[in-house]
C-alpha cells in the first residue's frame, strides 16, 4: 500500500525591482501545467483577500511611518493569511504553488531596515510554521538596470514604497539576495535576469526539471 502523503511542491521567485519575476511566474506555471502538473501562481504581499488588502496599505507607504518593526510584522501578517488560506491548502491537495516573492523578501528588504536579525529570524519562525519553499529562484540583475526596467513598466504611475528608495538601498538589496543564495545552496538558485525573457524562462525550467520534476517522478 502506498502510504506516501501527496504534497505539491512550493517554488518561490525572488529578486529586486524590475527583474521580471511576475512574467516568469506565469511562464513557469504554464509550462508546469503543460507537463501535466497541477500548479497555481500567487504573489506576495497578497495572494489572499486579506493579504491583498494589506498589500495596498504596505505599498502605499502609509505604514512606513509606523517604523520598520511594525512594517515587518504587517508583511508577516499578510504572509500568515496567504499561507493559511491559499498555500497550505493547495500543497496539501497536491497542487504545486509558484509564488512571486515570499519570506526571502522580508529577509532582504526588511533586513536592510536596521532591524535586529534575531527579531526577523523569530518572526519568520512563527510566520512560516512548517511551510518552506522547496526551491527558490533568485533573479539577479544590477540594481540600476532593474530600477530602469521597473520605471519603464510603471509609466506615469508614482513609484511605490520600496521603488522610491535610493540606488544604494537597491544595490544592497541585490547583495542581500546573493548572501541568502550563498547561505542556502540546497534551496536557492541564482538566475541571470539580464538574459532574454525566453532564456530566463528556459534556465528556470531546466532548474525546476532537474531539481524537482525528476525527483517527483521518482517519488522522492
Ligand atoms: P512587487 O510584488 O510588485 O515587487 O511589490 C512588492 C514590494 O514589496 C517590493 O518592493 C518588495 C516589497 N516587499 C517587502 O519589502 N517585504 C516582503 O516581505 C514582501 C513580500 C515584499
- The rounded Rg comes to 17 Å
Net shape:
globular
- How many structural units, i.e. domains? 1
Helix content: 40-55%
Order of helices and strands: EHEHHEHHEHHEH
The structural class is alpha/beta
Question: What kind of sheet is the major sheet?
Answer: 5 strands, parallel
Strand order in the largest sheet: 2-3-1-4-5
Runs in which pLDDT lies below 50 for 5 or more consecutive residues are none
Write the layout of secondary structure elements.
Layout: E1 10-15, H1 21-34, E2 39-43, H2 49-60, H3 68-92, E3 96-100, H4 103-109, H5 117-128, E4 135-140, H6 143-154, H7 167-183, E5 188-192, H8 197-217
Parallel strand pairs: 1-3, 1-4, 2-3, 4-5
Helix pairs in contact: 1-8, 2-3, 3-5, 4-7
The structure holds thymidine-5'-phosphate (TMP).
Thymidine-5'-phosphate binds next to α4.
Describe this entry's structure for a reader.
- With about 220 residues, this protein is α/β, with parallel strands linked by helices.
- Helices cover about 55% and strands about 10% of the residues.
- It has eight helices and five strands.
- The protein has a five-stranded parallel beta sheet, sandwiched between helices.
- Helix 1 packs across helix 8 and helix 2 packs antiparallel against helix 3.
- The chain starts with 9 loop residues before the first strand and ends with a helix.
- About 35% of the residues are buried.
- The mean pLDDT is about 95.
- Thymidine-5'-phosphate binds next to helix 4.
Amino acid at each position: 500500500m502506498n502510504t506516501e502523503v501527496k504534497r505539491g511542491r512550493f517554488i518561490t521567485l525572488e529578486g529586486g525591482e524590475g527583474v521580471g519575476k511576475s512574467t516568469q511566474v506565469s511562464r513557469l506555471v504554464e509550462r508546469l501545467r503543460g507537463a501535466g502538473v497541477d500548479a497555481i501562481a500567487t504573489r506576495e504581499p497578497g495572494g489572499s483577500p486579506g493579504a491583498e488588502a494589506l498589500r495596498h496599505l504596505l505599498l502605499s507607504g502609509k505604514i512606513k511611518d509606523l517604523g520598520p518593526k511594525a512594517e515587518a510584522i504587517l508583511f508577516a501578517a499578510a504572509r500568515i493569511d496567504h499561507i493559511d488560506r491559499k498555500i497550505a491548502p493547495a500543497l496539501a491537495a497536491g497542487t504545486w504553488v509558484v509564488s512571486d516573492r515570499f519570506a526571502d523578501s522580508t529577509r532582504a528588504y526588511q533586513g536592510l531596515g536596521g532591524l535586529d536579525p534575531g527579531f526577523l529570524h523569530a518572526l519568520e519562525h512563527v510566520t512560516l510554521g512548517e511551510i518552506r519553499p522547496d526551491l527558490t529562484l533568485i533573479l539577479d540583475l544590477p540594481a540600476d538596470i532593474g530600477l530602469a526596467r521597473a520605471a519603464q513598466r510603471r509609466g506615469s504611475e508614482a513609484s511605490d514604497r520600496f521603488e522610491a528608495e535610493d540606488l544604494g538601498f537597491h544595490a544592497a538589496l541585490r547583495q542581500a539576495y546573493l548572501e541568502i543564495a550563498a547561505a542556502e545552496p540546497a534551496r536557492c538558485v541564482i538566475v541571470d535576469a539580464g538574459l532574454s525573457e525566453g532564456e530566463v524562462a528556459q534556465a528556470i525550467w531546466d532548474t525546476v526539471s532537474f531539481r524537482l520534476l525528476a525527483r517527483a517522478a521518482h517519488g522522492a
